[in-house]
Amino acid sequence: MAQRERSERRRLRSPRRSKKWRAPLHSGKSVSSRRLSATKQQLLARRRRLLKGLDYMDTSVHEVKPKKDEVWTQLQSRMVLMLLFDLRKGGCCENEAVLQVARTFKIGHDKVRRINNHWWDHRQLYETTAVGRGKTAKKDDGRRRLTEVQEDQLREFINDEHKAGRQVFRRTVAEWMHRTCNMEQPSNRSAGGLLSRLGYKRRRGRIKTPPLNAERLARIRRFLVEMDMAKRAEDAGLAVIVYMDESFVHQAHGSPCSYFPSDEDGVVQDGIGRTTGKGLRMIMVHAITKWGPLAKLCYGFPIEEGWFKETGSGKKEMEDEETAEFLWQVKLAKGDNHAAMTDSMFMEWLEHRLNPAYNAIPEFKGKRMILVLDNASYHHEFDAEVKVPESNTKKHNVDLLRMFGAKSISVKRKEGEQGVVGVQLRGTDRAWFFIPCREQGGRCKQSGGSNGHSGIYPPQSP
User: Fold this and answer.
1) Is residue 336 within 8 Å of 305, Cβ to Cβ?
2) Which of 13, 178, 237, 409 is least surrounded by CB atoms within 10 angstroms?
3) Residues 243 and 362 in one domain
């Protein structure tokens, strides 16, 4: 009895414990299923926190890592060397240690090697300074700086070009500066530097399609009508549609990557074998019909292409060949085939390659050739006599103006004592020569019209 009383008093002194809640029997979930659901939610929450942390770290690494051409301090070099030495003492080889340090500090392995070599050669920490950077020109020639009003005009011009569906290049800006700001046309490099200072970046963007105005609709409708008439004439056996185009390739064109050996210090010996240049440029011109290319079947290399000058023999004229294939090498190493293809070269191909190849096919005799070609300037604007006004001499342009009957031309005088310069005269000549060449229909259409042939220009740049 006494023991029961003692236990009762002990129970009353102890704090009251709540009974564990149990789910009623009619509940659809058991205790174990509820525990699994709670565990799953905890895992999902932990995963979200982990992804958020990784995203934050990636953003932070992008902001913290050294920028290109950033000034490199001695403290940064000291940290790179200490980590590199720790990895080497831990048993890593030099290449693995360099790559690990480069991944850690988000820098190139070449910079890690430069810091290491500088320490071993001079016993000094590698550092760079900003001395000599950002020097302004002593004389402002108008290429490097515009007024605030001109900058606003340039921004408005670029915006209008994009709205019209046209791309803006450095050359476009340079021509705009020469035309609008009344200054000598700057180089493409100067125009690019100006755009960079104004906050413009070159990237691949979504350029709007040019608006379908009445002029462009009429140009597209004209092309569709011409192609439909050409198709009907070809189906009726009265004509043959010939498609032509030009392209280019470099002699050493290919992937620059390969496997190179490394010396004892881990320096890759990549300066052997292939040169850094892409080699000579080869221009290719050809024509094709729905029955195949316009070329006779030959074995080996059938044509001595492109060699208009032989050693010690002077200039060599192109002779007729029964093939539309045309190859030659050029000296230009930049741009594309449009910079090397000229009006005279195109007319040489038309007279000595395309026409003989077309006339050599018996099935095409008595049929009219309809040539489909793009809107390159050398296809239909200027002939071999006019050439390109910008590359002609001043005397040649003056003689052409007199031959076409020009009495006077309007040229804006350059500020200063020098007066009119050749660049201004050539630009005016191009605008003046464009009218008679258009009225004559172009040398290409004249040559084709004499043989009953014709040409069609697709509306790529109407």
Assistant:
1) no
2) 13
3) yes
Domain that residue 98 falls in: 74-122
Q: Do 230 and 348 reside in the same domain of the chain?
A: yes
Crossing angle for the helix pair 148-163 and 170-180, nearest 10 degrees? Answer: 130
* Total of domains in the chain: 3
Do 290 and 357 fall within a single domain? yes
DSSP-based three-state secondary structure for 368? strand
Q: Do 425 and 354 sit in the same domain of this protein?
A: yes
- Answer yes or no: do 306 and 364 share one domain: yes
Report d(CA 202, CA 206) in Å as an integer.
12
81 and 177 part of one domain = no
How many CB atoms sit inside 10 A of residue 255's CB? 5
Counting beta carbons within 10 angstroms of the beta carbon of residue 118, is it exposed (0 to 12), middle (13 to 18) or buried (19 or more)? middle
Q: Is residue 370 a contact partner of residue 456, using CB atoms and an 8 Å limit?
A: yes
Q: Look at residues 350, 317, 168, 167 and name the one whose alpha carbon lies nearest to residue 246.
A: 350
- Can you point out the beta strands (E) in 251-365? 281-289, 292-293, 309-310, 314-315, 326-330
